[in-house]
Design brief:
Elements: E1 2-11, H1 15-22, H2 26-34, E2 41-46, E3 54-58, E4 68-77, E5 82-90, E6 97-110, E7 113-124, H3 138-154
Length: about 160
């Protein structure tokens, strides 16, 4: 079984400013500050923020169906402002998923506003199809809203 969920949020922030956060490690630092009830910690396991970087993401106890996951940056396209992250351990892989990828794209609307496009693509192993109902874009939506709010209030 294959599926996809998406979310888009327009923010009054230049695309270049958003990409500075989303394109590397800064987003992990910000989510633990801005959303401590959603993300307990985000630690670099290996890498410097480029392709191949592996992060360990820990969720607060009792707040999520999964307690942790390790994700790897598999695509970072600075021209198109696209980042693809794949879960390589834990998370939904422990619930019968064979693939769980997060796509993040910053789309320039004009010089002062952008769209944060977030999506999750997944594949579920036979016998675990019911677990597809657990997939939610909510955390990525919360991240986009929190970062958008932080950057617009900072200005």
């Amino acid at each position: 079984m294959v599926g996809k969920v998406e979310h888009e949020l327009e923010v009054r922030v230049p695309a270049s400013e958003l990409w500075e956060i989303y394109g590397g490690l800064e987003v992990g630092k910000m989510v633990t500050k801005l959303l401590p009830d959603v993300f307990e910690s985000v630690e670099v396991v290996e890498g410097d923020g480029g392709v191949g970087t592996v992060l360990n993401v820990i969720f607060p106890k009792g707040t999520s169906l999964v307690t942790y996951l390790k994700e790897k940056f598999i695509v970072i396209d600075n021209e198109k402002r696209v980042k693809v992250v794949e879960v390589i351990e834990g998370g939904f892989l422990d619930l019968g998923f064979s693939l769980y990828q997060v796509y993040l794209q910053i789309i320039e609307k004009d010089s002062k506003s952008s769209i944060i496009k977030s999506s999750i693509e997944y594949e579920v192993k036979p016998g675990s199809e019911a677990n597809a109902s657990f997939v939610s874009i909510q955390n990525l939506q919360l991240v986009a809203e929190a970062i958008g709010k932080y950057l617009t209030e900072k200005v």
